[in-house]
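Hi L.,

You mentioned the student needs an example of a multi-chain input paired with its predicted structure. This one should do, with 259 residues in total across all chains.
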Amino acid sequence: MAHCTISTISAFRDNYIWCIHDDSTAVIVDPGDATPVLRFLEDNNLDLEAALVTHHHPDHVGGIQTLGTNFPNLRVIGSPESRFGGIKEQVREGDSVIAGGNSFSVIDVPGHTLDHIAFVLSNEESTHLFCGDTLFSAGCGRLFEGTAKQMHDSLRKLQNLPAETQIYCAHEYTLSNLDFALSLMPNNKDLQDYHNQCTLKRENNESTIPTTLSQELKINPFLRESDPEIIDNLQTLNYKALSEAEDRFAAIRHAKDNA
Ligand code: ZN
Ligand code: FE
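Structure written out for the whole complex:
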């Protein structure tokens, strides 16, 4: 797959299923629903080689059984910790998996769930991160199973990727995340500009994803727990014990959950 394309397949209300393909073979990330995936594969005449699973939630794995019926040799690749029963190839941090002719490296990113992993596809030009429900544009996943410390550590790992990394998360949550981000960083000019850009995109029915790590570092409150403006606003909201980065992260997550 010398020249791979990454296509967006929309599912449910606000899920994105990512399809990495050339003109014959496809790899799919988090197929929560088989119907739009089968339609996309048929329209583009693609054979499905593998499904990459970031975590066990139904909106990420719900289509796998049907896809397996249509493509009996389908490789289903995910975490050994997965509560989803359909994983056929187990991968963990440090592994790389070759699928559709591309090499994906695996990072453990517990927090949203304990089985959560992310896949990183790097080629000469760029780095692409498939991070499921870990990092969103202007937000991060809710802590359903993991602790704030686990999520904070996971996001730190993602922050170490190259700044130009393209981030393919699994949901279009950007505008509502931006409302919360603006409440903590009302004077952040990059955030105001990004909010305007994203509002326009959504008015035109365009996706705001992928985003880039360099953009998120400027505007995502969950990557900016040392920003003095955020700390000020957390204090105004009556959060105390904010001396450790991890505690500030936990306060931001708590404030978002209660926004
Ligand atoms: Zn999820
Ligand atoms: Fe999800």
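You could point out the following to them. The mean pLDDT is 97. DSSP finds nine helices and 14 strands in the chain.

Best wishes,
N.
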